[in-house]
Structure formats: C-alpha cells, structure tokens
C-alpha cells in the first residue's frame, strides 16, 4: 500500500521516504504494539486513567475528523452521538443484555440517528448544516432530562461493567486502558483505511468543490450522508468507551460546550489527520488539567489564550509543527539539507 | 386574548434581543465572511464596561454610549490584530479562533467581575401599560423600538451609503474591491467595530433582565445563530423578522403546547429552522448563491 496522498502537491521529504521503508514501518508497528501492552502495566493508576480518557476523546475527535476534516462539513453535534452511545451502553447493561450486543447497539443506534439527521441536513449548505447539528446537543440535554425512566434524568445513570475480571490479575485501571487501546486502536485502523481508500478520495472531492464532485459522478449528497453516518458511528464507539472509563453519564455529558471543545481539539490537533485526532484527544483531556495546575482562578482565561496562541502560530494544528520547524530550520541554515534538520514529535 | 397578546409582545421583546445579536453576526459575516461565535461574549464585555462606567457615577445613558464607542474600537482592534490572520484561511480554523476568543473573553469577565450576578439598571422605566387587556412592560416596548430603529439604520447603511456599498464589495470579492480603490483592511475593521457596537446595545438591553454574568449571552447567541440562518445571511430585515418569529413561537409553544413546556421550548426554533431550510435552503429572505465550476 502506498501512503502517498494523491492530493498533496508537496514532494515527500527524504525523512518521509525513510519512514516508508517496509522494515521501518513494521518496526514501528511492533514498537507501538509492545508499548500498548507494556505501558498500562508500568504506569501509576492516575496516568492510566488519564491515558484511557485521552483514548476515549481521541475516538470522538476521530469521528469529527471524518465529517469535518475529510468531508469538509461543519458539525457542532458530535458530542450528542458520544452521549447517545454512552446512554445506550448504560441502559443496555442495566437491562441485563449481553455486553457484546450492547456494544453493537451503542455503535448502531447513533449511526442510524446520524444517518436520519444527515438525510435531511445534507441537502443544506455549510452553515445551515452547522445549525442543524448545533440543535442536537441543545435539544438532547432537555430530552435526556425529560425521559428520566430511561436516562435517569438529571441524576444521570451509571453502569459498572468494566471491572477487571478475576482471571486477568489486573487492576481495574489497567483493564480499562487495555479495553480502550484495543477498541480504540481497531477504530483508528479501520478509519485510517477508510479515509485513505476510495471513500477518502470521494470525501476530498466533495470537500474541495461539490460542483466538481457532481460533474465527476461523485454524488456530494451520498458522501455527505455517509460521512455523517460514519462520524456518528465512531461517536457511538467513543460513547461506549466513555462508559468503560467513566462508568457514569448524565445530561451534562452531552452539553453543547463539550461539542465546541471537541471541535477546537480537532482543529488544534490537525483537521484531516489521523495523528491529529490523537493529539486532539490529548488536548481535550490535558488542557483543563494543565491550566488548573497553573492557576485555578484563571482556567478559562488561560484556555482561551493558549488556544489562540497555538492557532496563531499553527493555523493547521499541531500536525503541521514538523513542517513549521523544517521551514524555520531551512531559513536559518540554507546550506543544510532538509533531512538533517532534527525532527520533533508532535507532543 | 389578553394572555395571547402579552405572550406576543414578550416574544417580540426577547426576539428583539436575539435580533440585535443576530444583526451583529450578519454584519461581521457581510464584512469578513466569518461567523463570529464570540459575538455574545463581546456583548457581555461591553455590558460590563457600561456597568463599570455607571458605577463611577456617570448617567446611565452616557455610560451606555461610552460602552458602545469603546466596543467599536475593541472590535476593530480584535479584527486587525487577531482575526485578520485567519480571514482568508481555513474556515474551520477561523470558527475555532472565534470560539477561543469567546472562551478568553468569558474568562476575562469572570476574572475581573467574578461569576456572581450583578444588578444592571434598566434604560427604560419599570412601568407597565394596559393594551387590550394585556399588561405589557414599557421595557419590552422600548427594546422593540430600539431594535427596529437599528434595523432600519443598518438597512439604510448597506443599501443607501457609500460605506455600505464598500462593506458589501469587500465581503463579496476583496481582491476586486481592492483593485477598485476600496481600502479593504479599514472596511473590515469598521465592520467588526460596528458589530461590536451592536453587540454592546444587545448587552445593555439584556443585562437588566438576566442580571449581569459572564455567561449571560450564551443561550441568546444560540438563538441568534438560528435567526441568522432562518432569515438568510444577507438580509438585516430578514434576520430581525426571523428573530421575532423565534421569540414569539417559543413563547407561544411553551404555554399552548403542554408537551413542550419550558424545558423543551428551546427545541422549537431549531425544528422551525430545520423545516424552513428544507423548503428554502437559502433562508427566508436570503438570496440564492450561484456556484460556477
């Protein structure tokens, strides 16, 4: 499989070419798998829980990326599907259903709801779609309070099914992190394959110019509905994982403010980027913790200021950081080749 | 009948506040092609500025006028030194920048003035008048009058003045506008400044009712966005009519449709927007934009 993106016009750097070599690639895959197995055993409980929450919200950001980053449709309602997935999980588990069936339903029900909404909304252009998606969390919160026999009303509802089983000998936090890594990892792999394949190309044309897409025989309507449906499904996965880690959900979960934060995290990480989704998830979880450590009284001011400062220097999000550093390096030392510029990871 | 009329007038009054915010969103969109999520936050900041000046002992009307003028310059500065960097870039990034701005401004208000509710004096007397059996507050009527005046002024500005023509030209095609000798940058700053001033008026109209808090405008902003989409992004009159429609329908539905009640009345404008958009995707008063490949 070639990973060269047919839409980018920039030539691949030598560093990139080196990364493409098969043994480097497989070595990286093995390294990631080993880390995923070993790290949960070594880290303290708090770090494991933080990592697990980063995983949950990375998946949510990934779903948002499918519809916004790849297909170019503004969605302000992603948190609604996360919340819906969480509610379905809690209800299904408390009703005594098999947990596999609960998981499948937690993916399918948000996907179906997302599809129904998109069937109507995808006829509309950019901002009108944003308005329809804004409505989801805003109507979702009072609805969740209203149907209290299903949702537990404002009190919320909890489901504790993710305690480590006896035979594994693991602590709860380790078991939960493993579940997040496994389910989240599979979601990331499947999504990556999807957006790099023919659907990804169709999304990119729809994002670029709908009229061109239509004239090439790619139906913008069909692919917008598809992107919304997949995003909602991934949101449902994230909701299931949310119940694995947090074990409790309430109307507060699908607050409109969280939807906005997800959107900000996606842009900060990097729109239309798989790695960017991971960074976005980390941003979503870590930024409030960091600003709280700096000064609890200034949390909101700092969050806004940091967001603006980062975007001022990196309008394309953290994934564009290596490119920026390379450009600075080239400006400072024009005689050096690009490959010798020290590479930095996005963290 | 009395109740019905009263609900209508109250709906018009709350709708007018959404309308003021919606007008400033339209103004910014006309000038820069952006949807500014920080508009509500900026309105709150303006209201706090008026409140501080009033606290120094200035008459209320002077404090409000001063806040309107200060807001104009704040808006222009924000456009020049922050937003301009993102104006012709990725629209997603620009949206998130205005969200960051909203967070920052809310944080600043909370830092200076805490999250406690502050009492804000009303510009209009607290009297009520009897019209056809309905008890209607003078404040509601005053709010409506102010918004109608602003709407007419804006429409006149856009359609009847050179500045309005320049603002529209810049919004439609900045490079052609520049080639015809229009100072694009200055027009963008004026657009943002005017929008901030309008927000200030919305802020001081809403503050006496809700008392002054950093999050005061959050739900008004959401309604204003609904009004902007419903009315069509290009028409000040359309946006005001849409905002009134939303205010009235929301009020009527809460009382006359028992299932909806006060918790779900927020759903009414969105269902309305959704239904209208399915029939008229460009909004009630908007013009259809034609795309060439």
Q: Which terms summarize this structure?
A:
heterodimer, A: mainly alpha, two-stranded antiparallel ribbon, 15 helices, disordered C terminus, B: 293 residues, mainly alpha, 71% helix, LivM-like (chain A), transmembrane (chain A)
* SSE sequence of chain A, one letter per element: HHHHHHHEHHHHEHHHH
Number of helices of chain A: 15
Order of helices and strands of chain B: HHHHEEHHHHHHH
Strand order of the largest sheet of chain B: 1-2
The level of helicity of chain B is over 70%
Protein name (chain A): Branched-chain amino acid transport system permease protein
Pfam families (chain A): BPD_transp_2
Membrane topology (chain A): Multi-pass membrane protein
Subcellular location (chain A): Cell membrane
Architecture overview:
- The complex is a heterodimer of chains A (347) and B (293).
- Chain A is mainly α and 347 residues long.
- Chain A contains 15 helices and two strands.
- Chain A has a domain at 45-254.
- In chain A, 48% of the residues are buried.
- Chain B has 293 residues and is mostly helical.
- At the A-B interface, helix 6, helix 10, helix 12 and helix 14 of A face helix 4, helix 9 and helix 11 of B.
- Chain B: Keywords: Amino-acid transport, Cell membrane, Membrane, Transmembrane, Transmembrane helix, Transport.
- Chain B: This is Branched-chain amino acid transport system permease protein.
